[in-house]
Amino acid sequence: MFVFDNLSILFVFLIMLGVVPNLFYSFGYLPHIKRKVHYLVHYFGFIISMLGVVIAGNALVFLLFWELMSLTSWQLILTEIEDKSTIKAARFYFFMTHFGFVFLLLFFLIVTNGNLEIDFNSMKIIASNFAYPTLLFFFAVLGLLSKAGVVPMHVWLPYAHPAAPSPVSALMSGVMLKVAIYGLFRFLFDILSNWQLEWGVLILILGAISSLVGVLYALSEHDIKALLANHSIENIGIILLGFGMGMIFLSLKLPTLSAFAFMAALFHSFNHMSFKSLLFMGAGSVLHQTKTKNMEKYGGLIKAMPITAFTFLLASISISALPPTNGFLSEWMIFQSLLGSSSIDNISLKLAIPFSVFALALTGGLAIACFVKVFGITFLGLHRSTNAKHAHEVNTMMKIGMILMSLVVVSLMLFTPFYMKLFDGVTNQLLHVSIYNKIFPNIWSMHSISDNGGIVSPLILLAGLIVLTLSIYAIYKSLNIKHRVYHTWACGYNTSAKTQYSATGFAGPIRRFFTWLYNPDEHFEKEVIPGHKTKFKDASFSVHVRPLFERSLYQSSVKWTNKMSYYVYRLAHFEQSRYAAMIFNILLSVLFSYRIFVHEFSWATLALESVVMIISIKVLLIGDKK
Amino acid sequence: MTSFLIGAFLATLISALFTTRLYGLILWYSLNSLSLALLAISIGFKIDDNTMIISGFLTLIVKSIVIPYILKKVSMKFGLARQITPNVPVYYSIMLIPALLVFTFYLAEPITNMMSSNANYVAISISALFLSLLLIIEHKNIAAKIIGFLTIENSLFLLGTTATNGMPMLVELGIFFDLLMAIVIINLLFKSEELS
Amino acid sequence: MILYIFSIMLLIFLAPLMPSFMKMVKMYLLYKKPISIFQGYRDFSKLLSKEIIISKETSAITTIAPFLVLSPLLLTLFFLPPIVRGEYYVSFVDAFTITGLISLSTFFLMLIGLDSASSFGGLGSSREAFISALVEPAMILTLFSVSLMAKDLGIGQDGINLSLHFPSAHIASFIFAGISFFILLIAENGRIPVDNPETHLELTMVHEAMILDLSGFYLLLIESAGSVKFIIFASIFVSLFVPFGLNLPVILAILVFIAKLFILAIIVALLEVNIAKLRLFKVPNLLGIAIVFAFLSLITFYVLGA
After folding, report:
1. Peptide bond into B89 cis (omega under 30)
2. Neighbours, chain A (3 or more CB pairs < 8 A)
3. Sign of CA pseudo-dihedral A106, A110, A113, A116
């Protein structure tokens, strides 16, 4: 009924690391929640259900806890109903999560032959006898990755995560998405055997696109929590890049490289859990003090909330993948596994992988820009609203939560070899190769597995940075330089809250460069002083970015469904003979496709039967033009 | 040496794709032809083929000096716009050009498998062909389109030199005369465009 | 080990000379009376004796970040390729880490820009963020391709491998990588087609805009970080893409290295005199060329070198 192998234990550990600081933060946050019992019941239910998913030993338990996880998190989004958008977000989340659930159910129904209580080993036998493993793979990918928020199934994330109370957003973004990654590991290794090369390539492409799309939408966002939610899409994309490389290497029979890539994916999962939870906690504290999610209303909060600000800074540096933090180390590992592609024989694949390197590197650069924006606009400069002016540090429990979480971040940075040992246990169980000793011959330096790979030594880097900074500081102190406090110069112009750069302005150049993706809706109004052309009293500029995927995929599919259902409705109610003809055609096409695809495939029958189909549709359904 | 010259050929072609000035484009075309000429000469010396060397020198004179010079004169005479902005924005080109290169290598794989020697050079000349087509596509300006047409000719010449170790001399000479004729026709075209 | 320390000291000594030298060459070419090559040192000593004026709008970031702008770059100096054969070099840090350290320094620089609440600071940070985001992929692809040619990812080992076995079989992709890296050198150091370090005009400022409100010792830290950054890029460029002279006797090798650095500085200065500054939204064209050349370098390596 339950499994406790290395993989499960590792993810239990991940969840516990994410949950324990969150508990403190959550209790600090509790006084501000009106429906306390509702919140607590669902909060603990959510944690237990996540634990349940990762230790589930058969399909029934897995599906039970998976559904429980979805339902509790859905109710948690509805804890604080501020306006209609919360309800809309919750409805969207509910729909998307059940869209995924349907595919998981289909997957399990096929691999268990209907008996949901058998364990993973028996499922593996059934799955290996199933004629279309790619179909199973697609079911698994659709089911799991819609939960993980991979493009193009990412649309619910920027709505659902901001709507939940902050501790819950931290859990959802930091931990729940990793449960989907756990599912990917479990399904691919324990249920589906004989992988194909294309699966890995598909995962790699999805990862590359998600990482770019996530960070680009994050840059254009003003809502701080929606921004962080978009960053989750990016980080899931980075994890999938590692995962996809692992799958490609394993399909090409390169197990050590594959193990390295999977370890990179696991390490990035841990890192993302730590810094994303911390970022959401920081955002929650800011939101709690300023009562708004709009970044344009923040500013100067570092003076009032130093602990929030510095923990947020730590997480920002880490998520921007800057050395010597843990975020850098895992991204370094993923880069190394992408570089390992130079030992592949397949020349087309080899030529295509630099595009993933490009995507990952561009993502890294844009992430730096994005977190400079978040940190700079939120915590630096002058306050942009009265709420921001009167903000003060949050209560002790919340502070403890944030400090504990930043300790988790620091521990991932300092004790990388220890964590690697854990991941090595997992890859050892899944792939039967142990590469820990190759990665860490000693604890100081971390080696890459590929032929001309690199080395990095996080501890030495950290020590070097500290020593150099302190020695420059010592020189500075010994010079005993005079200080004077004066107002900002800014070339002689006045400085006020209004003249500072805004978040919209900061992202301006990048938004202009990627106009084709953003397709921004710009409003610029100004009130000109009569008699002048250029002088104006008042001006306002606002940009609204239209989400490409939501518009093109979701809204248009809704529109099409509406149209289709209207057509069917009209047929069924007013034109019974045509309705019957349509059923006739559908039956015909089902029988034909059974003959063609299931029985045995031949181009001749396909051609013949499609001709018959076309004729019958023309004659029976469309009829003569009047 | 050969690989360097082929690299220079591709590099000048790609720089031409990013250029926004007409004279810059003509310069890149001239450099492109120069690398092609040097390539033909070096291959000619390597396999000791006099016709190849001659056609290399002809390329050097005609394509890298005479034609750019005439084009520049003509465009100055008719006062053509010097600013030529590509229709394809840069952010597309950044991804499109490498993707095109990889894709043509992938497509040309069956062809290159048939070749005994210099298989990869064939792949590169086919991708150069695609890049010069892109040059024609991305410009509305007639002069830039003509440069695109001339680079197509260059890439065909590259294909001929590297794949078959030189076409017969007669064919080469014929192509050169055709080119010169084409330049004369282009002159007329410019005139008609000016009139219209 | 002595040579190693000596080479780091040499680079630190040369760092302030380089910008003044480039300025000197430029002024000479423009028929102005050139400044002394030691102008950088004069500026620094003057800044040392000045008092620090801190804006009252700023926070703790302004007092911490200047140190963190300089220290990653100083740390990078320890990881550069050797300039003499047999010299100790750091083998436990690879090229990605170096790009990471440079980004770390840029990150704090951008925060300083936003800290003083001035509109110029935000403007500079925003532009710098835009440019450095586009530099990142070109940089990593270039390093990827160099690491393939030199058969190692560590920059020190690369320098030695390239000087021992010049990749003449991959000369095309070597040169593409070199072109790409040269464009990055210009873009990252704010030289003319991308940024003009000499003007204070809001239309053109990038780097200067971020540090308008710093003074005294803090300004010294940032300015020296700028010169250290140039010397890092220049020495990586001359060691990896002009890998000659490493095997000469010690004194000669050092002289050749210095000569290469100065020639590079002259080339950059010549470019600066001849090229007009690009508009900000034309900069992606230049960086696009760098990205495409980096790709091209990889592709030709795989295809022609196979």
Report:
1. no
2. B, C
3. negative
Question: B98 at the A interface (CB within 8 A)?
Answer: yes
The yes-or-no verdict on residue B100 having pLDDT over 70 is yes
Q: What percent of chain A has pLDDT over 90?
A: 48
Q: How far apart are CA A275 and CA A322, in angstroms?
A: 13
Task: Read off the tokens for C120.
Answer: 């110029």
CA A551 to chain centre: 20
What are C301-304's contacts with CB under 8 Å, separation 24+? C301/C145, C301/C148, C301/C149, C301/C170, C301/C173, C302/A347, C302/A350, C302/A351, C303/A347, C303/A351, C303/B105, C303/B120, C303/B123, C303/B124, C304/B3, C304/B6, C304/B7, C304/B120, C304/B124, C304/C170, C304/C172, C304/C173
**Torsion angle defined by CA atoms of residues C241, C245, C251 and C255, in that order, rounded to the nearest 10 degrees:** -50
Confidence of residue A533 (pLDDT cuts 50, 70, 90): confident
The whole-angstrom separation of Cα A292 and Cα A278 is 19
Most confident of C8-12, C114-118, C200-204: C8-12
Question: DSSP states of A493-510 as a string?
Answer: ----TTTSPPHHHHTHHH
Overall size of chain A counted in residues: 626
Q: Chain B to chain C, count of Cβ pairs less than 8 Å apart? A: 69
Half-sphere exposure of C293 (CA within 13 A, CB side): 30
Give residue-wise pLDDT tens across range A332-388. Answer: 999 999 988 888 887 778 888 889 999 999 999 999 999 999 999 999 988 888 888
Write the pLDDT tens digit of every residue in B135-146.
888 887 777 888
| Average pLDDT of the residues of chain C | 89
User: How many CB atoms lie under 10 A from the CB of residue C188?
Assistant: 21
How far apart, in whole angstroms, are the C-alpha atoms of residue A453 and residue A268?
Answer: 19
Query: Which residues in chain C are contacts of B94 at CB distance < 8 A?
Result: 288, 291-292
Contact A419, A267 (CB under 8 A): yes
Query: What are the structure tokens assigned to A209, written together?
Result: 């696109």
Q: Return the number of other C-beta atoms located less than 10 Å from residue C201's C-beta.
A: 10
DSSP B10-75: HHHHHHHHH--BHHHHHHHHHHHHHHHHHHHHHHHHHHT-HHHHHHHHHHHHIIIIIHHHHHHHHH
List beta partners, residue C52. Answer: A483
Helix (H/G/I), strand (E/B), else coil: A299: coil
Beta strands in A357-482 (DSSP E): 446-447, 455-456
What are the structural domain ranges in chain B?
Answer: 2-195
Which residue range forms the structural domain that includes residue C242?
A: 2-304
C17, C20, C40 from C35: Cα distances, Å: 12, 8, 10
CB of A231 closer than 8 Å to CB of A168 = no
Interface touch B105/A352, C-beta < 8 Å: no
What ipTM score was computed for the predicted complex, to two decimals?
A: 0.95
**Which chain C residues have a beta carbon less than 8 Å from that of B85?**
none
State the pairing for strand pair A483-486/C52-55: parallel
Residue A456 touches partner C, C-beta closer than 8 Å: yes
Half-sphere exposure for A328 (CA within 13 Å, toward CB): 29
How many CB atoms neighbour CB B81 within 10 A?
10
The shortest CB-CB distance from A351 to any of B91, B95, B105 is to B105
Q: Given an 8 Å threshold on Cβ–Cβ distance, is A501 in contact with C122?
A: yes
**Residue among B160, A249, B109 at smallest CA distance from C306:** B109
**Which chain C residue has its CA at the smallest distance from A332's CA?**
C96
Q: Which residues contact A50 (CB under 8 A, 6 or more apart)?
A: A15, A65, A69, A175, A176, A179
Q: Indicate the number of domains in chain C.
A: 1
Who contacts A551 (Cβ-Cβ below 8 Å, separation ≥6)?
A: none
Largest CA distance in chain B: 52
Determine which helix (DSSP H) or strand (DSSP E) holds C2, and give its type and residue range. Answer: helix C2-14
